[in-house]
């Protein structure tokens, strides 16, 4: 098992049953076939829960089960960008894309900051990427900016996101349940769509596609690496500045009434009503989400990482995704706050 897991103690908390019950209720509501929860608090695993089966193999979900995390992969891409900035291969977050890719009317005025905060003004609704707004004037969640980031990463590093992370993170920390998968494996869980049809998304291994599969515990360990700013135990595995870059608010200051992002991680210091973070979460909390329902939530105030996993694509009638993800975060917060209050009495 990886080095983070080896550092963690275990102390199952009965209060976490409230979180498990909530996740299971939503699992049934959205007709997911598989779900899991993994919670770390102050260096201890206080919650671990698995429910359901892989719809393609009917294998029971357990600690080795790996879910397709979809847009959660953007946090991995974000760390790769931070590494290239730290190494000087990218000079500045506010460098124009054209500095690296040459002049092009499509990305005129777009900086790397715009790409990692969804403020580039591009859209990928059609076959080809198009410009909808001037860079830095709107926030719009889509994948159009990733294609430019991929090109920049390849240009300045000569390699891929997967190669960068495998060399600097996955191998040193012995992550074995995280990777962009190209062929079926015994622990890969299929997603189910709105017709309950199972599908396992398998693409290339570059780290540029939506085929990143991660177990609940290793996604929590990924969050824990960020929570501790690259330090595991007494050893600083990666420079602290990488995690300050990726998790602090990087959204252009003029966009005050929009979702706030680090390097794709979501923050909510501006109290934005449509934020995907729960209203009760303390300032400084951040999270990353994926289309299958997976979530990695980091609450530095409580020294906590909370992960939930589903394998469902699409929102059934009556299900409010935004309300659900807020409620999950609020429930984690209130459960932990009540535990802490009980310990102090």
What would you say this structure looks like, in words?
- The protein has 345 residues and is α+β, with helices and mostly antiparallel strands.
- The chain has helices at residues 3-7, 17-30, 73-86, 98-101, 112-116, 144-157, 161-170, 216-227, 240-247, 321-344; strands spanning 9-10, 34-41, 44-52, 66-68, 122-123, 130-131, 178-180, 191-192, 198-199, 212-215, 231-232, 235-236, 260-261, 266-267, 286-289, 295-299, 304-310.
- Helix 2 runs antiparallel to helix 10 (321-344).
- It is globular, with a radius of gyration of 19 Å.
- The two termini are 37 Å apart.
Helix content: 25-40%
Q: Can you tell me the CATH class? A: Alpha Beta
Coarse structural class: alpha+beta
Question: How many distinct helices?
Answer: 10
**Any guess at the CATH architecture?**
3-Layer(aba) Sandwich
What is the CATH homologous superfamily assignment? DD-peptidase/beta-lactamase superfamily
The mean pLDDT is 95
Percent strand equals: 15-25%
- Shape assignment: globular
Low-confidence segments? none
Quick overview:
With 345 residues, the chain is α+β, with helices and mostly antiparallel strands.
Topology:
Blueprint: H1 3-7, E1 9-10, H2 17-30, E2 34-41, E3 44-52, E4 66-68, H3 73-86, H4 98-101, H5 112-116, E5 122-123, E6 130-131, H6 144-157, H7 161-170, E7 178-180, E8 191-192, E9 198-199, E10 212-215, H8 216-227, E11 231-232, E12 235-236, H9 240-247, E13 260-261, E14 266-267, E15 286-289, E16 295-299, E17 304-310, H10 321-344
Parallel strand pairs: 1-3
Antiparallel strand pairs: 2-3, 2-17, 4-10, 5-6, 7-10, 8-9, 11-12, 13-14, 15-16, 16-17
Helix pairs in contact: 2-10, 3-6, 3-9
């Amino acid at each position: 098992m990886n080095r983070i897991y080896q550092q963690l103690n275990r102390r199952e908390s009965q209060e976490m049953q409230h979180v498990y019950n909530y996740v299971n209720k939503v699992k049934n509501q959205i007709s997911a076939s598989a779900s899991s929860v993994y919670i770390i608090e102050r260096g201890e695993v206080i919650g671990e829960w698995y429910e359901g089966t892989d719809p393609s193999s009917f294998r029971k979900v357990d600690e080795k089960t790996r879910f397709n995390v979809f847009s959660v992969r953007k946090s991995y891409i974000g760390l790769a960008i931070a590494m290239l900035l730290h190494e000087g291969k990218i000079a500045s977050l506010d460098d124009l894309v054209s500095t690296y890719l040459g002049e092009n009317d499509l990305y005129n005025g777009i900086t790397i900051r715009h790409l990692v905060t969804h403020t580039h003004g591009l859209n990928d609704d059609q076959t080809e990427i198009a410009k909808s707004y001037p860079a830095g004037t709107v926030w719009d969640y889509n994948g159009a900016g990733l294609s430019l980031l991929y090109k920049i990463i390849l240009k300045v590093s000569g390699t891929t996101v997967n190669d960068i992370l495998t060399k600097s993170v996955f191998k040193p920390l012995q992550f074995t349940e995280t990777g962009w998968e190209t062929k079926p494996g015994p622990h890969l869980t299929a997603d189910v769509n709105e017709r309950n049809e199972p599908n396992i998304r398998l693409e290339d291994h570059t780290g540029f596609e939506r085929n990143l599969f991660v177990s609940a515990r290793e996604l929590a360990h990924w969050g824990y690496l960020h929570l501790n700013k690259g330090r595991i135990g007494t050893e600083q595995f990666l420079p602290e500045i990488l995690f300050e870059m990726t998790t602090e608010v990087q959204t252009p200051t003029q966009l005050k009434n929009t979702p706030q992002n680090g390097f794709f991680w979501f923050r909510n210091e501006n109290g934005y009503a449509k934020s995907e973070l729960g209203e009760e979460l303390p300032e400084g909390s951040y999270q990353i989400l994926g289309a299958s329902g997976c979530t990695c939530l980091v609450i530095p105030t409580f020294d906590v990482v909370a992960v939930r996993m589903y394998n469902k694509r699409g929102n059934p009638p009556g299900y409010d995704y935004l309300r659900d993800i807020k409620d999950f975060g609020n429930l984690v917060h209130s459960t932990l706050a009540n535990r802490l209050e009980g310990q102090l009495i």
